[in-house]
Amino acid sequence: MPEEPRQTPPPGPLRLPNARRVLAIASGKGGVGKSTVAVNLALALAARGHRVGLLDADVHGPNVPLMLGVRRKESVRGWEAMLPIGSAAHAPEQRLPALERYGIKMMSVGLLVGEEQSAMLENVSMVGLMVRHLLTMVEWGELDILLIDFPPGTSEPQATLLATVALDGVVMVVTPQDLALLDSTRAMNAFAQSGVPMTGVVENMSYLICPCCDERIQVFHRSQVPRAITAGDVPLLAEIPIEPTISEAADTGRPMIVTHPDSRQAAVFLELAGVVAGRLGM
Question: Cα–Cα 20 to 30 A to 156, which of 108, 114, 193, 267?
Answer without folding.
Answer: 114
